[in-house]
Amino acid sequence: xxxxxxxxxxxxxxxxxxxxxxxxxxxxxxxxxxxxxxxxxxxxxxxxxxxxxxxxxxxxxxxxxxxxxxxxxxxxxxxxxxxxxxxxx
Length: 89
Fold this sequence. Notes:
elongated; single chain; 5-stranded antiparallel β-sheet; alpha+beta
């Protein structure tokens, strides 16, 4: 008796976990950049290219950070931000 092969399980790649200290440090960097109206370069989990621009808004209700550059707004989930840097032109 020949059976139908079972479908292979698909495992999603999960976002790396970070401790509370790392998340707090990240939030501090974002707050400082927003208050200074400084341009930031964000390394975002799941995106090939980094996101660059100025922080327009940090929405605590949705957990998204709104980054604006050249009149275009990109919304990034706070938990997906892996690294905040100052861009080098």
